[in-house]
Amino acid sequence: MNDLTLTELATLLSVFNRAGLSDLDKTEQEMFERIQHAHAERLELESMDFDDCLGGACKL
């Protein structure tokens, strides 16, 4: 699977925001929400300090 990078996801969110969110149809709104969710997950994953996971303290 070809996952998008954090930068690519942020770019997509920026494009959606510049295009205007009020004019989105249902499918576009669903895609925007999926991109927001993927961005939040990727941001969290990339900001994790994996040293914090020693002893099973975090969920991967």
UniProtKB/TrEMBL annotation:
It comes from the Bacteria. This is Uncharacterized protein. It comes from Neptunomonas antarctica.
